[in-house]
Amino acid sequence: MKSIIQTKDITIPEGVTLDVKSRVVRVKGPRGVLHKDLKHVNMEILRVGKNKIRIKVWHGVRKHIACIRTVASHIENMIKGTTKGFEYKMRFVYAHFPINANVTEDGALIEIRNFLGEKIVRRIRMLGDTKIVQSTVQKDEVILTGNDIDHVSQSAASIQQSCAVKNKDIRKFLDGIYVSEKGLLNKD
Q: What's the pTM?
């Protein structure tokens, strides 16, 4: 059943400027600027006050109304990214052959060596402004940080998928690099 109008409001915190022009959202905060093009979703994104934005869908069916929450979550993640930033921690898991990882190019590239004793060197480049560092507190851990949650999480997924075990029983061979913790960079 179609509903005539559905809306959702998002409040903009202090110190963040949010601009919307023809469904291209630009969020500027203390940590930087993020852009997202939302032209593929048919909805209105309006400013209704100094620190409030409203998302509207007219005559939407169930799937179209579900897009309201998705777009709102994207905008809220952009606000969180420009104010606090995102951090993913990944741990190396191995039974016999220790996985060696080198972070190069100022945290923009990770090289993984000796995965299951293989001689191949896996090189994974971080997306966007995402940086990777080796943890000083925990052995066999890397930390990914950045403002854009899409880039940070996709970089973590690329690292995890590059260490997939092939032609072996994955119930027994659990070696790999896995996400152990997700969260905000500045936990206030």
A: 0.91
